[in-house]
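Tutorial handout. Part one gives the primary structure; part two gives the three-dimensional structure as tokens.
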Amino acid sequence: MQHRRLGQSGLSVSSLALGTMTWGNAVDVHEASEHVRAFVDGGGTLIDTAFGYGGGAAETILGTVLRETVSREDVVVCTKAGISRAGGQRRVDVSRRALMTQLDASLARLGTDHVDVWLAHTWSDETPLAETLSALEWAVTTGRARYVGVSNYSGWQSARAVSLLEQARVPLVANEVEYSLVCRSAESEIAPAAAALGFGLLAWSPLARGVLTGKYRRGIPSGSRAASADFPRFAERFLDERSARIAEGVVIAAKGLDVSPTEVALAWVRDRPGVTAPIVGVRTLGQLRTALASQDLVLPEQIVVALEDVSG
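Part two.
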């Protein structure tokens, strides 16, 4: 497993991150323990979660895993605040009050006095950016977070956040954004901003919500996220002709290299400029082992060119 600096910070993290969005729904505490053990044994360190994942269950499960399965010192915990669900409805609140309250709740669930990386989960026009960032500064100065960043910020939003945090002498080290062969919008503004301003990109949904595994080539299989009542619209936007064409290209490349489509898709994202780590969520230990195998794959240049052509 490669390890990389998160942006221009001194924090070293694994070049593959383990996501927890399905914990508490598709993944229970026993399965999560197995996954984290295998992830750490495979050289992984970075685990990504959020206050709102599973209504808090994801962080609670991770807290149990950190007490019973692996040492807290063996992992880099990244969590986010600002999105929650009340009565089944998605709620965005990145006010100082909400963020501070949610971070303390996250720490209690995780059973730790600090997180390694804490991100504002999304941008909101309802709260002044300076107020949101004041909570990030507070988290660092009080020792609750070692590093801070943002998630789902555009290029100009990221640049503004970097500028305001610099005034407080608090670096912004990461922006967690969607990035895959199917969704390459990060390349237009966000990746150039990362290169210019020194923050790292954490790529969520690098498998395009499962589409790039090839599982949807012949319909929607039972047990997939597209078939799940918990994530009814998660994969829907990528079940179109363009995505199918890209997925087919990944499958062809994988056959030529004698590896899985998952390995090809993850290796491509991992090696994009500015990317520190793709974040992969898994339901099974087999899926995790396939994802870990991607770390040994170096894509030939002609394959990279072909994938970029089919996805451009």
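Part three, for discussion. Residues 162 and 208 are 28 Å apart (CA to CA). The two ends are 29 Å apart (CA to CA).
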